[in-house]
Specification:
The structure is a single chain. This protein is an alpha+beta fold. It has 3 domains: 2-55 and 75-104; 111-223, Cupredoxins -  blue copper proteins (Immunoglobulin-like, Sandwich); 226-327, Orthogonal Bundle (Cytochrome Bc1 Complex, Chain D, domain 2). The chain is 43% helix and 18% strand. It is built from 9 helices and 12 strands. The protein has helices spanning 2-12, 24-57, 75-103, 210-229, 235-248, 270-273, 279-287, 306-309, 312-327; strands at 111-118, 121-126, 131-133, 136-139, 144-150, 155-158, 165-168, 174-178, 184-190, 202-208, 256-257, 262-263. A 5-stranded mixed beta sheet has the order 3-2-1-5-8. Strands 4-10-9-6-7 form a 5-stranded mixed beta sheet, covered by helices on one side. A two-stranded antiparallel sheet has the order 11-12. Strand 1 and strand 2 form a beta hairpin. The protein starts with a helix and ends with a helix. The relative contact order is 0.10. The structure holds dinuclear copper ion (CUA). Residues 117, 120, 155, 190, 192-194, 198, 201 line the site of dinuclear copper ion (CUA).
Length: 330
């Protein structure tokens, strides 16, 4: 059994199961997985050896058609197969607890990011920096706490290279921490089946040096500050606000709209269906998407809560942005 355990373990540990490790939590999680693989190999070896021995030792002799001898159980064996798995499972639980406790410890100087998940997009708010974005930028070697919220159904936040994963549940705030220690571009992956666009619910992640992160924050502050400070002055500020709403509300996660650089096909192609529609019809389709369906798209694909999520003013901005970008500016 021990020999077989060693052989299975060596083979299974050759695989790079989790891929690139990009956070300080990753090493602990990967080691935990390796330990679990060896324990599973041990259990598997017990089963295989017992099975093989029983098949060989208790096989029927040629011509033997009789029933097996009735037996009355074996107390020693039953105690063994209760105690050994109990010890293994308790060890696994205690070790996992230890790791979880370690990787969930909060640093005092961590960066706060409020994450909002919705069908089928992510939004990231930096409350201390006053920035909202559809990309997650974080400085390298600093712990980030992601405060998760969902506005429609359950989603789950996962950056595979960081290993940690947590559900975003409507009405129940959750949070997860990671300390990225490897610069580069990654992706947030939604890892809870949340609807027809689940597989495309991803967002870019950039881990960069502190100076580049600061520069990005300034860039974002500059644009959002300029865009809203205008108070509906010029057409361009309004268009920028409309486009931002289009991204933030997740429209770009499902629709194609050339003007916004969106090219998803879960919902109707807006460049094709909107030119024939009036402002009132477009507005109605956002608030009550089931009322009039485009051919080939079923009821219930588009969330029906945009009437609550958007203020009247935001709806006006979004509708005029859609009209302008599909029917030409008036
Ligand atoms: Cu959101 Cu899957």
């Amino acid at each position: 059994m021990l020999l077989l355990t060693a052989v299975i373990s060596v083979v299974m540990l050759q695989f790079d199961w989790n891929g690139v490790a990009g956070s300080t939590e990753a090493d602990d999680v990967d080691l935990l997985l390796d330990v679990m693989i060896v324990l599973s190999a041990f259990v598997y070896a017990i089963v295989l050896v017992m099975l093989g021995y029983s098949i060989w030792r208790y096989r029927a002799k040629p011509g033997d058609e009789s029933d097996g001898e009735p037996i009355h159980g074996n107390t020693k064996l039953e105690v063994a197969w209760t105690v050994i798995p109990t010890v293994i499972v308790l060890f696994g639980a205690a070790y996992s607890w230890f790791i979880l406790d370690k990787i969930e410890a909060r640093d005092a100087n961590r960066l706060q990011v409020d994450v909002t998940a919705q069908q089928f997009a992510w939004r990231f708010e930096y409350p201390e920096q006053g920035v909202t974005s559809t990309e997650l930028h974080v400085p390298v070697d600093r712990q980030v706490e992601l405060n998760l919220d969902a506005i429609d159904v359950i989603h789950s936040f996962w950056v595979p290279e960081w290993r940690v994963k947590k559900d975003a549940v409507p009405g129940k705030p959750t949070s997860v921490v990671a300390t990225p220690d490897r610069e580069g571009s990654y992706e947030v992956v939604c890892t809870e089946l949340c609807g027809v666009g689940h597989s495309t619910m991803r967002a870019p992640v950039v881990v960069e040096p502190q100076e580049e992160f600061d520069a990005w924050i300034e860039d974002q502050g500059g644009t959002t500050g300029g865009g809203t400070a205008g108070g509906g002055g010029g057409e361009t500020a309004l268009a920028a606000e409309g486009r931002q709403l289009f991204d933030e509300q997740g429209c770009s996660g499902c629709h194609t709209l050339k003007a916004a650089g969106a090219n998803e096909t879960i919902g109707p192609n807006l460049d094709e269906v909107l030119p024939q529609r009036s402002e009132a019809e477009i507005r109605n389709s956002i608030v009550d998407p089931g009322a009039e369906l485009s051919p080939g798209f079923g009821d219930g694909i588009m969330p029906d809560n945009f009437g609550d999520a958007l203020s009247d003013e935001q709806l006006d901005i979004l509708v005029s942005y859609l009209v302008d970008s599909t029917q030409g500016k008036k």
